[in-house]
């Protein structure tokens, strides 16, 4: 696969400090790529269509220093002027300030005769000049692609004294996106000349699984739209590349229209250039709640909206997303949502996928830590039962949910001491302190109960009333043990017949809890009894279906 991506920067400038009497637009269009030769058409538009054109300097920048190219361009071979009557011009010249830049200086002394052929009505692009140049990469195979990167350009009056305007040339752009095996959140940042169908964008997608957009529910789609995000399941890891899976001429830019959104979670996509997530705004203002997430194997907080990827953003009300007009390839500084001293539970499955959940004791707004909706079935996902990535242990025992994981799973804790149990407490019951870990091998365990390591020792044995009560079909039973004892916790029906033994083993001093699942039982009254040493107590529980 061609992994080389040429980075084309366009910087057109002139040393002047004049006013801007004329509105200018410009763009590059790739006419063709043959071997190492690029044919690029430069088009310029003025608001009147009859203004003077003086000159410009165009800088093509590449992402490698191991390239060579024609140093002295030849008229009608390396550059061609198009469809102008009258006037004179000097040959284009090339300078080479560094190995990875090609500077093309073009004089366009056309006075009041900018009457080139109009090739597009809105805006009225005027065909000005074709630039043809050879590129040879000494280190890599041919088949280069390019995209526009610089946010600066300029076109100058015929007297070479008036700078008309600075901005960004439009044109096609190249793209590289790493897609992982399994589920990915993706987007399309422009128009694929081969078509907008999902198979045109991701030919390696799982043919048996639909691509989904998210609008309340997951809705299958066959055609893509810039600005939308999608769930796509891929077969194997792959780097999608302009010139390989996508057309060598690049992907067409589209206007950066605001993206319509609704209250709650939205799955969106950006455009051709990465922009910081903290520059994303809404109409009306202030609707964004919490971090922006992406998904490639797992949910993670995103610091920038990257082309080709999908992003999850939660809004407090209906509105629109506005992407910034100034483009940047640099990520924004990451917002620190998590304090360094918060407790961490780090889970790593057999595939190497890892996820961190946080335990807090501070007074924080936990609503800011809500994770996006559950991914499609089979996708890797770990979260608290509340749907959050962070929870407060002072609020009681927390339940951790796991799906799409590969066993065995390593569970490590940092900055906290907790007890980990499975739902029954029979398969897993481990006390962990900072730096310790445990491996879960039992594939039936897809929930973990996290109990705070209470510093106080219970002064009496106790059996609390189950909660909820009445229940259907599960309920939690909590009890306290004042010293290490053999504990029997059992459930009986109203006739005194044994229904289930939840615990029958030696337990350490402390607070314990277990979950009772009555899925296979009929509605009615049941009795929960604990025997710990000389302590015996019974509670009534009501199963109500």
Description:
There is one protein chain. This protein has 545 residues and is mainly beta. It has four domains: 166 residues, Immunoglobulin-like; 146 residues, no CATH class; 110 residues, no CATH class; 82 residues, Immunoglobulin-like (Sandwich), CATH 2.60.40.2550. It is 1% helix and 44% strand. The two termini are 59 Å apart. The N terminus is likely disordered.
* Rg: 32 Å
Number of DSSP-assigned strands: 44
Amino-to-carboxy terminus distance: 59 Å
CATH fold group of the largest domain: Immunoglobulin-like
Percent in strands: 35-45%
Structural class: mainly beta
CATH class categorisation of the largest domain = Mainly Beta
Domain module tally: 4
Taking pLDDT < 50 over at least 5 consecutive residues as the criterion, the unreliable ranges are 1-21, 83-92, 94-100, 110-122, 138-154, 164-168, 325-332
Roughly what is the average pLDDT, rounded to an integer? 76
**Shape, per Cα inertia axes:** elongated
**Tally of helical segments:** 1
* Helix fraction by DSSP (H/I, runs of at least 4): under 10%
Based on the structure given, which CATH architecture of the largest domain is correct? Sandwich
Q: Main β-sheet: number of strands, strand sense, barrel status? A: 7 strands, mixed
């Amino acid at each position: 696969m061609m992994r080389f991506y040429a980075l084309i920067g366009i910087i057109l400038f002139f040393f002047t400090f004049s006013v801007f009497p004329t509105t200018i637009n410009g763009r590059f269009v790739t006419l063709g790529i043959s071997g190492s030769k690029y044919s690029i058409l430069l088009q310029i538009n003025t608001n009147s269509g009859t203004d003077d054109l003086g000159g410009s300097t165009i800088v093509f920048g590449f992402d490698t220093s191991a390239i060579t190219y024609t140093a002295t361009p030849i008229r009608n071979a390396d550059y061609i002027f198009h469809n102008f009557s009258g006037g004179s011009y000097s040959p284009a010249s090339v300078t080479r300030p560094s190995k990875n830049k090609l500077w093309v200086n073009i004089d366009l002394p056309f006075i009041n005769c900018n009457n080139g052929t109009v090739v597009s009505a809105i805006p009225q692009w005027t065909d000005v000049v074709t630039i043809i140049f050879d590129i040879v990469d000494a280190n890599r195979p041919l088949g280069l692609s390019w995209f526009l990167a610089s946010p600066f350009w300029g076109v100058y009056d015929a007297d070479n004294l008036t700078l008309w305007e600075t901005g960004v040339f439009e044109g096609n752009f190249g793209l590289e996106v790493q897609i992982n095996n399994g589920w990915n959140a993706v987007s399309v940042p422009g128009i694929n000349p081969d078509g907008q169908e999902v198979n045109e964008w991701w030919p390696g997608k799982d043919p048996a699984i639909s691509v989904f957009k998210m609008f309340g529910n997951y809705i299958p789609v066959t055609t893509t739209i810039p600005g939308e995000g999608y769930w796509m399941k891929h077969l194997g890891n792959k780097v999608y590349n302009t010139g390989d899976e996508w057309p060598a001429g690049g992907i067409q830019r589209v206007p950066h229209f605001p993206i319509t959104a609704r209250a709650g979670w939205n799955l969106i996509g950006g455009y051709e250039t990465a922009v910081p997530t903290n520059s994303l705004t809404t109409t009306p203002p202030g609707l964004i709640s919490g971090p922006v997430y992406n998904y490639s194997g797992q949910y993670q907080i995103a610091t920038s909206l990257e082309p080709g990827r999908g992003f999850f953003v939660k809004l407090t009300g209906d509105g629109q997303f506005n992407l910034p007009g100034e483009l940047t390839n640099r990520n924004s500084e990451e917002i620190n949502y998590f304090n360094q001293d918060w407790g961490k539970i780090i889970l790593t499955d057999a595939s190497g996928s890892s996820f961190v959940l946080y335990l807090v004791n501070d007074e924080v707004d936990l609503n800011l830590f809500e994770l996006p909706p559950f991914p499609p079935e089979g996708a890797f996902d770990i979260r608290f039962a509340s749907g959050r990535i962070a929870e407060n242990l002072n609020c009681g025992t927390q339940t951790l949910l796991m799906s799409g994981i590969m066993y065995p799973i390593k569970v490590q804790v940092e900055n906290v001491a907790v007890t980990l149990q499975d739902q029954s407490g029979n398969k897993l019951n481990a006390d962990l302190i900072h730096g310790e870990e445990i491996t879960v091998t039992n594939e039936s365990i897809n929930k973990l109960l996290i109990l705070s390591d209470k510093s106080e020792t219970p002064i009496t044995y106790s059996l609390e009333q189950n909660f909820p009560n009445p229940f259907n079909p599960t309920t939690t039973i909590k009890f306290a043990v004042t010293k290490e004892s053999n504990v029997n916790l059992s459930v009986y029906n109203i006739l005194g017949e044994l229904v289930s033994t939840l615990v029958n083993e030696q337990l350490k001093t402390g607070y314990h809890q277990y979950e009772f699942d009555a899925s296979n039982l009929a509605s009615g009254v049941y009795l929960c009894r604990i025997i710990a040493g000389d302590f015996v107590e019974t509670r009534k529980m009501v199963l109500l279906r």
